[in-house]
Amino acid sequence: xxxxxxxxxxxxxxxxxxxxxxxxxxxxxxxxxxxxxxxxxxxxxxxxxxxxxxxxxxxxxxxxxxxxxxxxxxxxxxxxxxxxxxxxxxxxxxxxxxxxxxxxxxxxxxxxxxxxxxxxxxxxxxxxxxxxxxxxxxxxxxxxxxxxxxxxxxxxxxxxxxxxxxxxxxxxxxxxxxxxxxxxxxxxxxxxxxxxxxxxxxxxxxxxxxxxxxxxxxxxxxxxxxxxxxxxxxxxxxxxxxxxxxxxxxxxxxxxxxxxxxxxxxxxxxxxxxxxxxxxxxxxxxxxxxxxxxxxxxxxxxxxxxxxxxxxxxxxxxxxxxxxxxxxxxxxxxxxxxxxxxxxxxxxxxxxxxxxxxxxxxxxxxx
Length: 367
Prior knowledge:
Elements: H1 8-12, H2 20-34, H3 43-56, H4 59-74, H5 80-116, H6 122-129, E1 133-139, E2 145-155, E3 158-162, E4 171-176, E5 179-189, E6 194-198, E7 219-225, E8 231-244, E9 247-252, E10 264-267, E11 272-276, E12 285-288, H7 312-319, H8 332-344, H9 347-357
Antiparallel strand pairs: 1-2, 1-4, 2-3, 3-6, 4-5, 5-6, 7-8, 7-10, 8-9, 9-12, 10-11, 11-12
Helix pairs in contact: 2-3
């Protein structure tokens, strides 16, 4: 009697009711065991593990596989016609149950489709991401160069990335094929864990930031970079959206490795809804990006200086807005908050931050 083939669950060593996160953990654990230095190469086992992971890590394919397993369990006990009848009945019951369970969600998705449509074609979304997504690189004081994640442009000369792992003394650059462009941090939001970068000459075709927040059940694309900088997208589904202080944290169905920190999470129209941000001890999380991060903060026109003979009303209009920004165009309220934050930072670290992010000296206009 031939031996029964192992199921995908048995190959990964997990029960059939294992949580979604357990699939990735089990796959990594088995792959490490196969690739030990003292273990002989086993290409066949690696292929089986990858096949099991690809099926079980995809929620739709896993549901189909589970239905197949249940049908296989009924085969030895039932005849052909009876088996087919039970299979049809089972699928009918499952279909009706899913319809009643997902009916509110399906109705909401139908309304969304009527408003925005089903989204752009996959290749169009990829083509829009290619010129805007690049690898973030750092050069430490020691001269050591390393990858620091991913950055993406949201407007001309402006990019966004995760602040995780960025050193205040590091020299930054963004590799947007075929160029490597110097970058510097212009804005840091510690609560979100996100940074804005100045990347001059980049962002001719930026990604737009969605003004519609992501919801549980939404279809999205995770962004990844290959070894040669090629951009790839993988469809996923939003599992949950949870508040964490000021931030909204999203969990999706596709695992994402730490080296992809800063990668944009795109909706079906190619708009950015969140940024990959994996703090120490955290995995597969995205932080919702504020819609304002895709817009340049514009300062209003300078008030006209008061000249003799004006009325009191003209004087008030001339002085309106005066003192709202400093010499560098930064709002005084923002500058005040930055100074208060710096007072709480360790003095030595504050010196390094001021040295690293000090703006260039202004040049007199008459030179």
